[in-house]
Amino acid sequence: MSISTISWVNGNVKIIDQTKLPLKLQYITCRDVKTLWKAIKVLSVRGAPALGVSAAFGVLLGIKTFKGNDRKRFVAHVLKTCDYIGTSRPTAVNLFNALDQMREVLVFCPDASVAELKKRLKSQAFAIYEEDRKVCRRMGDFGARLIKANNRIMTVCNAGALATADYGTALGVMYSSKKKKRKCKVYACETRPLLQGARLTTWELLRAKIDTTLICDNMAASLMGQGKIDAIFAGADRIARNGDTANKIGTYSLAVLARYHKVPFYIVAPRSTFDMGIESGKQIPIEQRSKEEVTSFGGRPTAPKNVKVYNPAFDVTGHKLITAIVTEEGIIRPPFKVNIKKKLL
Amino acid sequence: MSISTISWVNGNVKIIDQTKLPLKLQYITCRDVKTLWKAIKVLSVRGAPALGVSAAFGVLLGIKTFKGNDRKRFVAHVLKTCDYIGTSRPTAVNLFNALDQMREVLVFCPDASVAELKKRLKSQAFAIYEEDRKVCRRMGDFGARLIKANNRIMTVCNAGALATADYGTALGVMYSSKKKKRKCKVYACETRPLLQGARLTTWELLRAKIDTTLICDNMAASLMGQGKIDAIFAGADRIARNGDTANKIGTYSLAVLARYHKVPFYIVAPRSTFDMGIESGKQIPIEQRSKEEVTSFGGRPTAPKNVKVYNPAFDVTGHKLITAIVTEEGIIRPPFKVNIKKKLL
Fold first, then answer.
1. Structural domains in chain A?
2. Cβ–Cβ below 8 Å for A218 and B259
3. How far apart are CA A51 and CA A46, in angstroms?
4. How far apart are CA B262 and CA B318, in angstroms?
5. Which residue from B214, B297, B303 is facing A22, i.e. has the nearest CB?
6. How do residues A173-204 score in pLDDT, each as one tens digit?
7. Which residue of A214, A219, A294 is in closest CB contact with B307?
8. Which end of chain B is more exposed for a tag (fewer CB within 10 A), N or C?
9. Helix runs in chain B, H state only
């Protein structure tokens, strides 16, 4: 993939401004944490794995301006920076995992100088970045085993190159499948309210020359009812120990529809998405987003001002609706409680 | 209801321009058939029952300009006008039913003069209009029996006053329920791509002071999964003899989700929506609409230009997913094949 969603360039974080896609391929150069924080907040950069990399790079931005050699002050500064970055997207487990990995550097080097810590934080951030790239390829290769030639696949939101530092999660499966000469046809759900499917998924799939058809979210059942969908692949924002999966709003809807129509429903996500600290999806907090995302479009109102709105960013798909979860360690099938532990612990 | 969706004023058809809602309450005065044809085509006026009334009034517009007393020429002119109106929305059965009722006037008055025919066509059109108003009230009253106080109801598209000459079909149930002092809370699915739910349903429900929450279509399952929906009410564009129902795209999706979550799923439609000539939903042609409805919004593109699009206007909900059909003759329950015949023939 030639899409560079996030990279470290001359001491700054360079990201694609995904709010401008598909109209313009425009980059944002984040020279400080605040700019990056805002980019995460307004979804200029999004997608679970890309958020992990962003958080790690964000810490590097935060320490750029630190002056002096006072270790205690430096540690406090890094921890504060981590906490600050954590407030940008409170539901994103990858973001917190990456921040924890950065914090561990401090814990494991109790005697290191400020200069040494800076160096180690930098290598940790780059390790997270490189790991994401490797992990994408491995997930793609495992997932491609689930695809037959000419399969018609449905996907939701953007779980692609734009959501990671490389190949994507759910879309990585399609890229890998294409590389193996097993072409597939993709139906992308537009994914209201922010249209990540329409704006981002179609954009990157067309760039990769994959046969892509855009649909509104409420058309998915119509296609399944006609027997036109062979499998559904979605990403994940957080997966509980029992396999319950939080992902973009609408994912649960597709999973229920898939069950009714006997279509296999797959989640593709790296181990960093698993939150082994929570037993089930009931413990996953659901971010509620602003009313205006639903009542207006491009600044133009589309509903009466005084209407109430329900606008959850995610929903939780119970593990019973999931056929398998594709990870970099292989394909995990039910019973998930047992097999997730076996594969990932 | 104080909403006058369609009316005959000084020899012209006055309609609310629904493409302008909810921003502006603006009327279009159709002085000729062509203007009305276009208004139907671009959905300035829509909704199955309102289309029936529009078609009947359209015939009156068509005969306004007819000069002379040549009966043969007049009949040909009326038939041509009817055919022309029929091309505006080829899927709308109410439109064709109304046109057939207008044609019947010609058949049943073989000896009438042009002046006499004009008079009879006018009373026929007004009879269709009055009938729609009566039928709305009756459906609303029957449907309200299915609602308990404080029920949380979901609806799709706009099956309200804006879709009829009076009270609406699915929303009529809520209006009637409110009149009977059984308040309910309504969740309106925005209904992509044209957002009739966001633009029209919320607008008219708020005017009627009904507690209304707007959601994106892909959020419906999330609410049902949390046990927050007590019933779903939808309108219909065409119902086959076995109860299979074509309605706005996304209706089938809600019906499948309702079945999974054990939520009752009701269709509200007048007998004019039933097409006894077709045995099942398989025979209902599905109108495919333009790609631009999905790839742009308010003139602003939201997806790459070269992406393919699947944009059906309707889907068909199999009768097995329908709990009951509310008509002006009463509530029809399964087995539909038998009971539709019993109630409506």
1. 6-137 (1.20.120.420), 140-344 (3.40.50.10470)
2. no
3. 6
4. 16
5. B303
6. 999 999 999 999 999 999 999 999 999 999 99
7. A214
8. C
9. 33-41, 48-64, 71-86, 93-108, 114-144, 170-179, 196, 202-207, 220-225, 251-260, 292-295, 336-344
